[in-house]
Amino acid sequence: MTSADPAAAKPAPKDPWELPDVSGLTVGVLGGTGDQGRGLAYRLARAGQRVIIGSRSTERAETAAAELGHGVEGAENEECARRSDIVIVAVPWDGHAKTLEALRDVLVGKLVVDCVNPLGFDKKGAYALKPEEGSAAEQAAALLPESRVTAAFHHLSAVLLQDPEVEEIETDVMCLGEVRADVEQVQALAQRIPGMRGVFAGRLRNAHQVESLVANLISVNRRYKAHAGVRLTDI
Amino acid sequence: MTSADPAAAKPAPKDPWELPDVSGLTVGVLGGTGDQGRGLAYRLARAGQRVIIGSRSTERAETAAAELGHGVEGAENEECARRSDIVIVAVPWDGHAKTLEALRDVLVGKLVVDCVNPLGFDKKGAYALKPEEGSAAEQAAALLPESRVTAAFHHLSAVLLQDPEVEEIETDVMCLGEVRADVEQVQALAQRIPGMRGVFAGRLRNAHQVESLVANLISVNRRYKAHAGVRLTDI
User: Fold this and answer.
1) Are A71 and A47 a contacting pair, CB within 8 Å?
2) Does the interface predicted TM-score (ipTM) exceed 0.90?
3) Which chain B residues are within 8 Å of A176, Cβ to Cβ?
4) CA A157 – CA A151 distance, rounded (Å)
5) Does the beta-carbon distance from A160 to B219 stay under 8 Å?
6) Distances from the Cα of A41 to the Cα of A27, A135, A149, A200, B195, angstroms
7) Sign of the torsion angle spanned by Cα atoms A102, A105, A80, A164
């Protein structure tokens, strides 16, 4: 290294574990009546976050919200998105593009967290589907050019998330995105849930493998009768 | 469940942690002079496994073997493959197809463990390459129809593997393949290395995301100044 090294002029790197306070933000969960969405909504609300679950049907959203307790509210997807600062996309892959297209305007400027895993299933189990855009997250980014799209929460067991007996879920949440400040909000949100760490794990162009790793976790679960998650070691 | 349920007639499921003894098998490491190959060879030999590293050049293989110690031998790739029971493929992705094609005959009947990660690099870091066959492992399976092709050892840090000061490497090795008995040998081999577990993680059609997850680990390493690995939780 010489004195002309451009790195020498840079400030000391920021502590990657120094994350913003997101406890005052409202989190919407689109597809919040599905297993993954319900589970995430439940965990976040139980941790003290204000949560609104969204559904195509206001009635279904309100029913699910009432079941979850912890102050969770229910609303039709558009209202859920409008009232939320952070919007988690937990809809089935089949409805992913259609749901997001319809919400493009109301999602302008919002922090969007895609947690959809495009998978197919046949007699041999689960396998990855490859969206034309590369991944569900990249599809979201293409459909929502004026939103702040990130990806996270792919590897959580809906069973553990929803089990009120489970106090902590020992797992890491791989958080991906293009803008560090956005991803750090998602990391901070993940860390609100006891046992979880929110870990930066790359740009959206590397979301496909994170999404489709769920196919492997399904194989693990079957073989080991488990609800497998992922921890990253050495960090 | 009714008495007609076919599962009722099945024997109790086998304990997934009951793995074969592979301590007497010879392991060849193709590309054993590269960082990943050297590291794996070193760890396995240090654990008491008989290891031969292979290279295109006998001389380079022998030099690297002498440096590694622990009884590691060096040989030209073909001899390495011929003398080994289990053959780990740790060559650069660029040379993957060519190397395997040339060894097709000598690899007939052998247990082949592909640990190659097809990645590209640009200014934004690492990204996944998608082999025509789906993954490096599936390319190996296509090129070696009479070998027993599996995939494993993708997420190990070559730095940690090669560091003699490191006694244990706390990580899981995701092991993939079509034939349970073959994959179990690979799992057992992984477990020879202190700190590692060999975990069944699906069929070869789900190898791509395991291979390309290394792009994410590279992002993690950069952000956290770490040598990140993967642990699976709840198993």
Assistant:
1) no
2) yes
3) 216
4) 17
5) no
6) 8, 23, 19, 22, 36
7) positive
Tell me the helix, strand and coil percentages in chain A, rounded to 5: 40, 20, 40
Kindly report the CA angle at B221 between B48 and B132, in degrees rounded to 5?
80
**DSSP states along A12-23:** PPPPTT-----T
Compare CB distances from A124 to B203, B229, B234 and report the shortest one's residue: B203
Paired tokens of B15: 């304990």
Domain boundaries, chain B: 21-224
Domain A21-224 top-level CATH class: alpha beta
Selecting from A201, A215, A220 the residue whose C-beta is nearest the C-beta of B219 gives A201
- B229, B196 contact by CB (below 8 A): no
Spell out the residues 6+ positions from residue A36 whose beta carbon is closer than 8 angstroms to its own.
A90, A115, A153, A156, A158, A161
* Cross-chain residue pair A202–B216, CB shorter than 8 Å: yes
- Written as tens digits, the pLDDT of chain B (235 aa) is 444 555 556 677 789 999 999 999 999 999 999 999 999 999 999 999 999 999 999 999 999 999 999 999 999 999 999 999 999 999 999 999 999 999 999 999 999 999 999 999 999 999 999 999 999 999 999 999 999 999 999 999 999 999 999 999 999 999 999 999 999 999 999 999 999 999 999 999 999 999 999 999 999 999 999 999 999 999 9
Q: Could you give the CA distance from residue A155 to residue A214 in angstroms, rounded to a whole number? A: 6
The whole model's pTM is what? 0.94
Contacts of A118 in chain B (CB under 8 A): none
